[in-house]
Amino acid sequence: MDYSLTIKLTFSLFSFDSKNMRWFNTKRILISLILVPIFTICLIINRFFLLLDHVFFPHFIRQSIRNPVFIVAAPRSGTTYLFHTLAADKNNFTTFKLWEIILAPSIIQKYFFLGLLKCDRTLGSPLKKVILSVENRLLDNFKHIHKIGLSLPEEDEAILLWNMSTFYLNFFFPDTNYFNNYFAFDDKMTTVNKERIMRYYRKCVQRHNFVFNRRGTKKFLSKNPAMMSKVKSLHQFFGDATIVTITRCPSKTIPSTIALNNSIYAFFTSKAPGHDINERTKNILINWYKMAHENITAVYSNQTINLSFNGLIKNEQSVINNLCGKLGIEDRLFSTNQDPEKLNHISRNKYTALGDSELQFILEKMPFISEYCTEEKMS
Fold first, then answer.
1. Closest by CA position to 258, among listed 358, 161, 342
2. Starting from the edge strand earliest in sequence, which strands make up the sheet with 304-308, in order?
């Protein structure tokens, strides 16, 4: 656990600077009064049960993780579509779902909630109906920009919340520089902290496999844009992984991500992000593109499946055949006739694409992506 970060955040809930997003506005005060106690209780409970796993299931640390698959690409690049499509192949893949990440990171908790749901089904699922009703009310405003639900696969960066070691905390603590090393993980994080965080993450995956994939017949699947900054660290702990990349022109991924981030910030404060916040997001994404390109080429060159965004969302046969052939799965998952509402979620996230001059300036910093921008213009 990052105790140094935890201490800093404890004393940074609010800012006395009226221009700061953590200023004492009504929304932030109310949200803090609700979320801080809930998060603190969840943190204590989850960490307690994570420790108990070492007492009741100590052999979980020997659980194998064979040939995992990591979708490593910029946000707003079709990663959610690909993630949910692959996760639908339950014979070949297993992955974290939101309920497991938030409520049951430990083995003990997983068994408890699985048992509870089994009992609920025998009674006609009254608990499930209540949960779905509450979920729809709480998450309805967010579903239009990101496909989300307790029973759905989700980005596993959130499981690092219980180790206080994720930049996700930045959304609740904007206008700070506490997360700079997390945004450039491989380059700026200390070796000791990198290994501590990645060991914790690996153990979380082992716990998942221990419950849902004990025999190791399925591949663990992860979709996590944050891994763009962790490729070298990922290789250290998951050397046999397959990396799936999706490349989309930054003229759309950057403004779309900024719009998404601003929507998340708006949950926690009524102070709108300033120009500096949006510029920081843009620079982080540019750095992620560069880090991922350089490090994937260096350490995962023979274990990478490169996809173009256009080819993926249009289900171009050559792209789908390449992906499915290398993963050893059937291409029927990508059929447009297969439950389009489930597999082809379209975000209603509103943004304006970057202008040609700004895009050209960015492409000068990462020329390796230029061909994809040309491809999208021609499509």
1. 358
2. 93-94, 219-223, 69-71, 242-247, 304-308
Q: How many CA atoms lie less than 13 Å away from 83 in the CB half-sphere?
A: 27
- The single-letter code of the amino acid at 202 is R
The CATH architecture one would assign to domain 3-378 is 3-Layer(aba) Sandwich (3.40)
As a whole number of angstroms, the distance between CA 233 and CA 299 comes to 10
Q: Determine the pLDDT at residue 293.
A: 92
Asked if 210 and 107 touch (Cβ cutoff 8 Å), the reply is yes
Q: What confidence tier does 163 reach under pLDDT thresholds 50, 70, 90?
A: very high
Q: How far apart are CA 132 and CA 151, in angstroms?
A: 9
How many other CB atoms sit within 10 Å of the CB of residue 311?
21
Of 140, 172, 170, nearest to 32 by C-alpha is 172
The count of C-alpha atoms lying within 13 angstroms of the C-alpha of 271, restricted to the half-sphere facing its C-beta, is 22
Average pLDDT of span 361-371? 87
What does the mean pLDDT of the chain come to? 88
Domain map (residue ranges) of the chain: 3-378
Give Dmax over CA atoms of the chain in angstroms. 61
Output the six-digit token pair for 59.
């052999």
DSSP 8-state assignment for residue 354: P
Residue 244: DSSP 8-state: E
Q: Which two tokens stand for residue 57?
A: 């299931």
Per-residue pLDDT tens over the stretch 219-251: 999 999 999 999 999 999 999 999 999 988 888
**Residue 310 banded pLDDT, cuts 50, 70, 90:** confident
Q: Which two tokens stand for residue 186?
A: 């491989």
Model-level pTM?
Answer: 0.89
- The token pair at 272 is 């709108």
Q: What one-character DSSP code corresponds to residue 307?
A: E
Distance CA(80)–CA(289), nearest Å, equals 18
d(Cα 115, Cα 279) in Å, to the nearest integer? 47
pLDDT in tens, 332-351: 777 654 444 443 445 556 77
Residue 142 banded pLDDT, cuts 50, 70, 90: low
Contacts of 117 (CB under 8 A, 6+ apart): 127, 128
Residue 148 has pLDDT above 80, yes or no: no
Q: Which amino acid is at 334?
A: F
Task: Give the three-class secondary structure for 308.
Answer: strand
d(CA 22, CA 270): 9
